[in-house]
Structure formats: C-alpha cells, structure tokens
Amino acid sequence: VLGGGAQGKQLYEELEEALIGADVGVEASARIVQAVRDDLKNEAHPETVRAALKAEIERVLESVERPAADSGDEPLVVMLVGVNGAGKTTTLAKLAARFKAERGPVIVAAADTFRAAAIDQLEVWCNRVGAEIIKQKQGSDPAAIAFDAVAAARARGIKTVLIDTAGRLQTKSNLMEELKKIARVAGRNLPGAPHETWLVLDATTGQNALSQAQVFKEAVPLTGVILAKLDSTAKGGVVIAIADRMKLPVRFVGIGESVEDLRPFDAHEFVEALFE
Amino acid sequence: TLSDRLEGVFKKLRGQGRITERNIEEALREVRLALLEADVNIAVVREFIEHVKSKALGQEVLRSLTPEQHLIKFVAAELAVVMGGQARELDLKVRPPVKLMLVGLQGSGKTTSLAKLARFLKVERKRRPLMVSTDVRRPAAMEQLRVLGAQLDIPVAESHENEDPVDIAERAVKRAELGGFDAVLIDTAGRLQIDTELMDELARLKAVARPHHTILVADAMTGQEAANVAQGFHARLQLSGVILTKLDSDARGGAALSIRSVTGAPILFAGLGEKLEAFEVFHPDRLASRILG
Ligand SMILES: Nc1nc2c(ncn2[C@@H]2O[C@H](COP(=O)(O)OP(=O)(O)OP(=O)(O)O)[C@@H](O)[C@H]2O)c(=O)[nH]1
Ligand SMILES: Nc1nc2c(ncn2[C@@H]2O[C@H](COP(=O)(O)OP(=O)(O)OP(=O)(O)O)[C@@H](O)[C@H]2O)c(=O)[nH]1
Ligand SMILES: [Mg+2]
Ligand SMILES: [Mg+2]
C-alpha cells in the first residue's frame, strides 16, 4: 500500500510525466492525476492507481461519444477540415472507401482549389477507391464546388458527400471565413449540411491541437475529430483535453498511408497504447 | 505569461524574507511548466533546467531589484545559445553542384520547403538550382513539385512513379553536373523514423546521391515526439540542418529546442506561410522568447 508518503508521491509524479510525454498536456495531466488521487485517497497499490488512471481517461473519452448524424433521406454531408498537412485528403480517401462499402456510391467535393496539385492528388485517390469527384480548376470558389457536390448527390440519390478542404492555420481569419462560407453554402443547398464536420489532427501535434479545435469550432460546427498518423510514435494525448473541454469525440484514427489504414476510435485501445 | 507568473513567484518569495538559492527552485519550476506547455520534450526540459541551475544564476538574480525580469532574460539567453546562438548560414562553399536532400515526417512541409529553398538560392544567393522529387508513393507528389517549379521558373528533373527513388536522384545529380546547375535539391517522401524499410531507402539514397546537406523538415507544432523523431533521422542520416515550418501558426515551437538539443543540428530556415516567398533565415533568439511565452 502506498499511502501519502514519498513512494506514493513518486508514483503519481511518474504517471503525470508519462501523460505529459504522451502530449496530454501539463494542465490536463495534473487534473487527471489529481482526480484519481482524490478518488483513491492516497491508499492504493501502483497497479490499482494505474488502472484507475486508465479508467478515468477512458471515461472522459467515452463520455463524449455519440452516433453520427442522421440525414434522413438526404445525402449525409461530411466536411473535413484542419491545418496544413494534417492528413485530410488521405483520410477522405479512406472514408470514401469505407462509406462506399457501407452506404453505396460516394461523391467527393474537391474543395481545395488552392494548393499545388491538390485536385490531382484527390483525383488519384477517387479513381483508386471508385468515388466520383466533383471538381473545377485551381483557383475556383471552393464553396461553389461544395454546393455542386451536394446538388449532384441529391439529384442522383447518392447517399454520401465528402468535402475535402484546403489546409489552413486557425490563426488566419480570412481562411477561417472562407471555411465558414463553404459550410454555409453547402447548407444553402441542403439545410443541415454539412451534417458532420471533422477536424483532422496530426497525432504528432502538440498542445496547439487544442487551439486548433477551439478556433475551428468557432468557425464551423465541429462534430468530431479524426486522429491521423497514430502509427507514428506519437500517442495523440491532445484528444483527451479536446474531449474534456470541448466535448468533441474522436471518430476515427488513421494508422497509415494506405486506404485501409483507418479504424473507428476505440477509447480502451487508445488508453492502453497511451501507457505502452 | 511567464513574466507574470515569475513575478508572482518572486513576490511570494520576497514575502517570506530574503530570496535564497533554494527558492530559485520554485521560479525554475515555472520555467519548466512554460517549456512543457510550449511542447518542449520532457527529458529535454529536465536537462535544460539542470543546465540553467548549474550556471549559478542564483547570485545575479538574488541581487536584482526585478529578479523575475532578470531570470527571464537569463533563461531566454540560455535558450538562444542552446538553439544555436546567431542565425546560421547554409554553407554553399562546396564544389558545385551543392546537393541538398530534404527529409522528415509525412506532411511536415518538405515539398513546399524544397521549392522555397530553391527560390531562396535563386533569388537571394544567385544560384541555378535544379529540383527533383524522389517521392514515388504519395499521389501527385511529383506533379506538386512540377507545379511549384513552373511557378518559380525553376527546372524540375525528370521522375516517374515506377522508378527507384535512388535512380531518380542519381539521374538528377548527373544532369546537374552536366547541365550547368550549381545546386540540386532532392525531395523525398514523408516517412516515420521507425519505418525501417523506408529509413533504409533514405540511407541508400544518401549513400548514392551523397548530398552535402541532409536537412530535416519539421513542423513547428510537433509535440513531445519531436525529440525522438529528430533522433531517429539523425542516427540514420547525420543531419546537417533543420527547416522549421508553419511558424506562422501560434504554436509555441518548443519542438525546435527538442530537435536542436538531441541532434545539435542548426535550424537554418523558418517556413512562415504557404506562399513560396514565406521563407527566411532562422533567428534563434526570436524563437527563444516565443517558446517561453
Ligand atoms: N503514416 C501516416 N501518414 C499519413 C496518415 N494520414 C495521412 N498521412 C500522410 O500525411 C501526408 C499528408 O497527407 P494529406 O492527406 O496530403 O494531408 P492534408 O491535410 O490533405 O494536407 P494539405 O491539404 O496540404 O493541408 C501524406 O504523405 C499522407 O500519406 C496516417 O494515418 N499515417
Ligand atoms: N501555413 C504554412 N503552411 C505550410 C508551410 N510549409 C508548408 N505548408 C503547407 O503544409 C502542407 C504540407 O506541405 P507539403 O510540402 O506537401 O508537405 P510534405 O512534407 O512534402 O508532405 P509529404 O510529402 O506528404 O510528406 C501544404 O498545405 C503546404 O502548403 C508553412 O511554413 N506555413
Ligand atoms: Mg489535402
Ligand atoms: Mg512532399
């Protein structure tokens, strides 16, 4: 039994440091460890403490899970957003393959009209997974493409629309305005669209992820997070604070660069990996 | 800000009587927190705090009328020193063509930075660069570099997705040597430092192309793993420099300290935006105060 002595203190410090090392963040790590400490009242075996800590984190993550939106008879419109290079386009390809298998033909809106070869990149992916791409030439209005994609899906009874957007830093207010407009215009064609807006986060990102979630959520109604690149050595601990503070669930995790490298988020698996 | 928090610490310390060496510990704890919040790797933070403590800063801080200001200036100066002191020049004084190879994690900004660096060499250093993509994996990666080359009016060497990256690089170097280019910039596919097969590919690429500079392109918003990632690339490839991208974000950039600390490689350039002109020589002192927050 540890008690409140030096040994107990050292264990809690070590656990806190392990969480910090997993990008959970200083404040969130301290809060989680303190919550467990209060609960166990400094009287527990190291194994009990560790198990309690895992359970607490799992609880935080699972408490914000919720099913995907239901668009009724209309197409489900999903928009992917996030900072530059996070993994949006690749994640979209993976989602397109998954949704196609589950729900039938998918329409993809190539709404990154800015970055060099962005449309080319998405086009290769759409050909590979058998999804139809709605695109215009580089420099055209991304909102118009999103609108056209939703209109096309509705006209042809296609059940899923996935919108790829250009990477943008949340510090660029004009780009956040552009994103608002894309969402607004999509909703003009189909009220309620986009039904799901997922922030793609690079698992190697540190505490800036929290600011990304906060600012993107101010611009568009974020309904979830996708943690890409979890096959890296990074643990993606940032999603814990995002769940706790913003009530955003992790929908999927990306675990590689191939189309099948996407898993639905499993809080238990995630927490186990956090302590490996 | 750290300044406010240190002020609070020293106010409380003064309230307890004279400030002693031992209560500098409390002030350093605030510095530690600031560095961790800035994403500096926890082991690197530990080492840096020890380093600061051992420099016997206690004395000067204790005698100062505004110890929090003195401590911050001292820590910022130490940070800047650890990060390489003054801005470092990219050494181009080699028999042409100077060869540069850019490596790093997926999505860190290699392709864009390669084009930015080529533009820098052309416009600021009056060189004739040739760019080449050895990324045979990412869809439209080669097209991406071609588009950037066209924007800059900088030639891009021939490459095909069904080729061996090493053959592509070799051919580009040969072309540069024959064709009056004095710089070759080699783009590589993003990869994880733990991917043995892809790290082997990179080592082979380096052995054949023999670049003068092997540069890690790292995202300024990278978290704790920046240390391990840099360590992994450095151990296999001997990095000669680093480009830190996306510094136009509001990420504190602690990854820079982690990377510099574990590799000793100088941070040469900062990526400051998506446009190709958004690129400058890196200034360690500026980043030092940003990291401290
Ligand atoms: N290892 C790994 N790499 C990934 C994963 N997801 C994406 N990537 C890679 O990350 C890089 C960037 O992916 P993109 O899909 O282009 O990212 P993006 O967010 O669309 O980038 P921008 O549109 O430029 O902002 C590519 O090399 C992808 O193959 C993942 O889950 N694991
Ligand atoms: N805001 C900002 N964006 C940047 C910067 N550098 C690169 N980017 C963007 O980051 C994204 C990824 O850049 P790439 O050059 O494709 O990254 P990469 O490392 O070549 O990606 P892979 O080849 O897939 O590993 C693109 O959207 C770039 O425009 C920068 O300094 N600031
Ligand atoms: Mg993209
Ligand atoms: Mg690239």
Q: Characterize the quaternary organization of these chains.
A: heterodimer
Q: Which sheet architecture does the biggest sheet of chain B show? A: 7 strands, mixed
Helix proportion range of chain B:
40-55%
What's the rounded overall pLDDT mean of chain A? 95
Q: N-to-C SSE series of chain B?
A: HHHHHEHEHHEHEHEHEEH
Stretches of chain B where pLDDT is under 50 for at least 5 consecutive residues are none
Write down how many β-strands of chain B occur, each being a DSSP E stretch of 2 or more residues: 7
Would you count the extended β strands of chain A for me? Answer: 8
Features:
heterodimer, A: about 280 residues, alpha/beta, 8-stranded mixed beta sheet, about 50% helix, about 15% strand, B: about 290 residues, 7-stranded mixed beta sheet, 12 helices, about 10% strand, binds guanosine-5'-triphosphate, binds magnesium ion
Protein architecture, described:
With 276 residues, chain A is of the alpha/beta class. Chain A has helices at residues 6-21, 26-40, 46-62, 88-103, 118-129, 142-156, 173-189, 208-219, 238-246, 267-274; strands at residues 76-81, 106-111, 132-134, 160-165, 196-202, 224-228, 250-254, 262-264. Chain A has an 8-stranded mixed sheet with strand order 3-2-4-1-5-6-7-8, with helices on both faces. In chain A, helix 5 links the parallel strand 2 (106-111) and strand 3. The longest helix of chain A is centred in the first third of the chain and has 17 residues, at 46-62. The model of chain A has no long low-confidence stretch (mean pLDDT 95). By secondary structure, chain B is of the alpha/beta class. Helix content of chain B is 51%, strand content 12%. In chain B, strands 2-3-1-4-5-6-7 form a 7-stranded mixed sheet, sandwiched between helices. In chain B, helix 5 crosses helix 12 (284-292) and helix 8 runs parallel beside helix 9. The longest helix of chain B is centred in the first third of the chain and has 17 residues, at 21-37. Chain B starts with a helix and ends with a helix. The model of chain B has no long low-confidence stretch (mean pLDDT 92). The interface between A and B is large, with 41 and 44 residues. The structure holds guanosine-5'-triphosphate (2 copies) and magnesium ion (MG) (2 copies). One magnesium ion binds at residues 110-111, 135, 141 of chain B.
